[in-house]
Amino acid sequence: MGPRKHSRSSSSSSSSGSSRSPSRRRRSPSPQRRTGDRPSSRRSESRPRDRRRRNSRSNSPKRPRTRDRSSDRGRNHRGERRRDDDNDRRRRSPRSPVVVKATGASPNDGKRDNKENDTPSQDQPTKSKTVNILTQDTRSGRTGGVYIPPFKLAQMKTEIEDKTSQEYQRTTWDALRKSINGHINKVNVSNIANILPELFQENLVRGRGLLVRSIMKAQLASPGFTHIYAALVAVINTKLPENGELLVKRVVHRFRRSFKRGDKVVAIALVRFIAHLVNQQVVHELLALQVLWLLIKNPTDDSVEVAVNFTKECGAMMSEVCPEGMRGIFERFRGILHEGEIDKRVQYTIEGLFAIRKGGFADYPSVHEALDLVDSNDQITHELGLEDDVDVEDKLDVFRFDLEFAKNEKMWGEIKKELLGEDSDDEDGGDGDDESGGGSDDSDGEDEQPSTNAKSVVIHDFSEQDLVNLRRTIYLTIMSSVSHEECAHKLLRLNIRPGQEPEICAMLIDCCAQERTYLRYYGLLGQRFCLVQREYQAAFDDSFANQYATIHRLETNKLRNVAKFFAHLLFSDALPWTVFEYIRLNEQETTSSSRIFIKILVQELSEHLGVQKLKLRFLDEFMATTFAGLFPKDNPRNTRFAINFFTHLWFADTPFKQQKLKAWQPILTPNWVIGTFFVVGLIFIPIGIILRLESDNVVEYSIQYDGDGKLDSSTQDPVVSIRSVGGTPGACALGDGDGNTFDLNRHGCLLSFKLDKDMKAPTFVYYQLDNFYQNHRRYVASRSDEQLRGNQPSTRSDCDPMQMSPDNTVKYADLNDNVGTNGTWNLNPCGLIANSLFNDIFWINSVTTPTGVRYTQTDTYPGTSLEVVNLMSQSGIAWKSDIASKFDNIKDTDRRADEMYLWQNPNYRNIIPKGPGLPRVLNKTAWTSDTTANFGVKSEHFIVWMRTAGLPNFRKLYGRIDTDLPAGSTLEFLVSSNFVVSAFEGKKSLVLSTTSWFGGRNPFLGVAYITVGSLCMVLSILFFAKHKLSPRKLGDTRYLVWKNNQ
Fold first, then answer.
1. What is the pLDDT confidence band of residue 113, given thresholds at 50, 70 and 90?
2. Rounded to an integer, what is the distance from CA 212 to the centroid of its chain?
3. 162-396 with 466-651: one CATH topology?
4. Cα-based angle 256, 257, 260 (whole degrees, multiple of 5)
5. How much is the pLDDT for 256?
6. Is the pLDDT of residue 119 over 80?
7. Please, how many CA atoms are within 13 Å of residue 62, restricted to the half-sphere of its CB?
8. Strand positions, DSSP E, 317-396
9. What is the pLDDT of residues 998-1012, one digit of tens each?
């Protein structure tokens, strides 16, 4: 809050250093009200309000809770509504500048809960320490969810020595926010004159953002109370016009946004607010004309309906101050009606509007008599256009550290004294004796004022003794009556004064909730009252809203009784179905209790009306707005939630869902337990033996050729051996910078397997990687499935952090190219998985038969028509479903020059063909046949790699040998080592293995079965011995615990 100049005459106080807007002006008197011969005049000097009002609209209905129930779901509902003890409220001084018309009613007796999510601070000063809201710093008011009683919080507030510290300012900010919300939430027609002085006690300069946000939030939650909030804003605007201007800006900004988004519910509420602000002269009528023209310029069903509602609310005022503009608006309405392009229902609303206009808007007065609090000459009107750029000043809604906090608080104290007319009794005590006699006369006159007013004081009894007696009588009558007809007759004979109908409704609902089961007696009684007097329908409507808002406080049994009670009123048509407007079925605004309430309510309706009749009720087009919250269409997520809710509702009452299926529940007798363990052991042990034998029949050989523990050329092993191609020791072991060379002389080696057992076809060739975490979350997600299917994706964000190649990456056009193009390329496919492809190459270099005959790569192997190098087939190693549907190459027409494909990547061009039918290059390319190798992303080596492993140590299939290899044969593989594993301390191995009927070699499975079976056998023997040595009678009560305690 910055320095502020305050003047009683101009009301031009500014906050945060902002000056008064040039668009704000006072309304000048208009001669139209003074004489009737000038219809084009603007306003009269003292414009009389239109007094034609319905008596029913003067009494404000009970307003539902305005705060958002979604913010209240996860909290403790320990606090109950506190009784308003404003009986001794400070009476305003006769000299108070806040001039309101007293309504003569007492303050509101109920106080709504005031709970709101704390808004965290956004801007922190550089000199203060950052406040951690998760700490248990109770002085700052943030305790991480720990409840602190108000008196304790006030005590801690007084213990803060530095009144300018950030903790103290935050505490006062939270108190200011809660106090403003409390005043706004409890304001109504009867107590607005008493709420205003209390509201001006708060620092509305510092908290003007909080004030505006609280008013807008309350208005959106309760559009029926818009005229009350507009009257409140009108009074505040006369004293603090900056607050009124900020509210007008935010309302206009929010309306424009809701109109663009097509949010009909919010738009209707906001145009209603604008209409009442126009009625209160807070905003210029030009804004109303702009809003109307925007809505009916390009008419739709929704926009015309909103325009009709808006015209009803402000039509009386607009007809007085701008008759020509309203004449043009109604001409446009008439044109829309004649065009006939809108729905019939909307056309009827336009015809109804013309009827209301013909009646002079008698049922829609511009300002209620009880809310006409400000004289037209005192009001400040803001001239703001619908298309004007506005600054909503969102920063005012959050806490900001103020370096001049003490000075600004003192300045507000002076402003508050001026607004409320407060004078210190102890100020300038000696000056009164030196003043002239005129001053004494004035003070005498003031002393006589209370005695004059005392004659007209009306004494109100706030002890509520009469109300308590009435409730007791109602309760005894309900509980003592034999039938609902007798009870209704007795209650109607009671002296029920107007306005006390909700007492009967509340007592009837409470008595119904207390019953152990629902009694139809209460439903019939409520039905009788609704049909006898219409006032009880409105009372039960308000009761439905209050019960649904606080349904989480009821136990399950009470909740069921209340739901069945209201269901009875609905299916008997005693209560209008408009009560469904209070229900908004979505995940954010419902709790488990409210969902149970809706479930029981709908089930009862379907039981009494039938599903078909209930469906017709819900599909009624005239009630579509009423059921909009029950069947939401504003958000796909809310729609999906409602569909799942009702699907579960209709299909949940099945034996399977209710867990009522017939089940076998054996009694665990000793004989049954012993027999079960014995049978399990008898079955598991043979299975384990069979699995173990089958696992031992699997022939498997493995050579580790890179990483710690790799096989060395000096190792003397009769089965496996390794030697380098170029004579370099450890040629296949790569350092961090030795990868992707495809040079056999530098990094090539020969791996020999001397088979000591027959290997029946097929023999599978695997490469094994250790300590490579393919299951890492970021690694698994880094891929573009759209790109892998051969399409150009709209975004590559799924491939992060591998969307583009590193700088100066060489891109080759053909396998035979020795020089490529340097640059930075878009990778296709992109992602970490696709660009970390295993690129070691394995060839069968030679096969030596048991007789000693050696066949090299290009020799034909005996018994086949294949060359030795082609004995290992590299086709059919990937899943057929992956090849058919998940991987496809990009079309030639979709290829881009700035992309680098797999066959152009220097790391993979030797293992991925550029196209089908390419000839092989011995000891250089991975493919060994020019007819079966797929190219691009359809390469089966690439597809196998793209299916990520779940463990850090894994094997992946490289090829398959479909020829039997007899014992004594020597199989020699030529390896081109290109994949670096030293960077992550990994290991590389080449594995040969056969399979059995249950898979590869897995000795653990057989051992596990044998172990479990043996344990069961041992337990069965032990239990049998225990049962025979010391048997125990089944159901022996001597073993009960309570027997031993006596």
1. very low
2. 25
3. yes
4. 85
5. 87
6. no
7. 21
8. 380-382
9. 788 888 899 999 999
**Residue 225 and residue 269 in contact, taking contact as beta carbons nearer than 8 Å:** no
CB-CB contact of 572 with 565 (8 Å): no
Of 284, 262, 249, 208, residue with least CA distance to 389:
249
Q: Residue 1035 — left, alpha, or beta (φ > 0 → left; ψ -120 to 50 → alpha)?
A: left
Q: State pTM to two decimals.
A: 0.43
Please work out, in degrees rounded to the nearest 5, the angle formed at the alpha carbon of residue 721 by the alpha carbons of 716 and 723: 110
**What is residue 48's predicted lDDT score, i.e. its pLDDT?**
38
**Nearest alpha-carbon partner for 697 in 991, 1003, 966:** 1003
Using pLDDT thresholds of 50, 70 and 90, give the confidence band for residue 475: very high
Nearest CA to 909 among 789, 814, 792, 790? 814
What is the rounded CA–CA span in Å between residue 669 and residue 650?
42
Domain regions of the chain by residue span: 162-396, 466-651, 668-698+995-1045, 700-994
- Is the confidence at residue 322, as pLDDT, over 60? yes
Buried b (16+ CB within 10 A) or exposed e, 674-692: beebbebbeebbeebeebb
d(CA 348, CA 344): 6
Q: Measured between alpha carbons, how far is 334 from 342 in angstroms, rounded to an integer?
A: 12
Place of tokens 């593989």: 973
Helix (H) or strand (E) holding 26: strand 24-26
Say whether 164 sits in a helix, a strand or coil.
coil
Q: For residue 368, what are the CA distances in angstroms to 56, 146, 235, 316, 461?
A: 11, 45, 14, 12, 27
DSSP H helices, 262-322, are 264-279, 285-297, 301-321
| Contact predicate 508/526, CB 8 Å | yes
Those residues with Cβ within 8 angstroms of residue 217's Cβ, 6 or more apart along the chain or in another chain: 66, 67, 68
CA 817/CA 796 separation, integer angstroms: 29
Backbone angles phi, psi at 719, to 5 degrees: -105, -55
Q: What is the CATH number of domain 466-651?
A: 1.25.40
pLDDT confidence of 303, banded at 50, 70, 90?
A: confident
Handedness of CA 908, 909, 911, 915 (dihedral sign): positive
Residue 400's beta-bridge partner residues? Answer: 123
Q: How far apart are CA 1042 and CA 67, in angstroms?
A: 53
Model confidence at 82: pLDDT above 70: no
Q: Tell me the pLDDT tens digit for each residue of 1-55.
A: 333 333 333 333 333 333 334 444 444 333 333 333 333 333 333 333 343 333 3
The two structure tokens encoding residue 778: 């970021």
Is domain 162-396 annotated with CATH 3.30.1490.20?
Answer: no
665 CB-near residues (< 8 Å, 6+ apart):
none
CA–CA separation, 50 vs 366, rounded Å? 7
Alpha helices, DSSP H, located in 515-555: 520-532, 534-549
Could you give the angle at the alpha carbon of 393 between the alpha carbons of 387 and 396, nearest 5°?
A: 155
Which tens digits make up the pLDDT trace of 917-969? 777 788 888 887 755 667 889 899 999 999 999 999 999 999 999 999 999 99
Amino acid at 88: D
How far CA 688 is from CA of 525, 676, 679, 695, 1004, in Å, comes to 73, 18, 14, 10, 10
3-state secondary structure of 339: helix
CA distance 799 to 783: 5
Q: With contact defined as beta carbons under 8 Å apart, do 533 and 574 qualify?
A: no
What pLDDT digit, counting tens, does each position of 611-633 carry? 889 888 888 888 888 999 989 98
Per-residue pLDDT of 811-825, as tens digits, reads 888 777 777 888 899
Write the CB contacts of 138 (distance below 8 Å, at least 6 apart in sequence).
146, 148, 156
Structure-block tokens of residue 602? 């709908």
Cα distance between residue 382 and residue 459, in whole Å: 41
* Amino acid of residue 642: A
Distance, in Å, from the CA atom of 1018 to the CA atom of 898, rounded to the nearest integer, reads 70
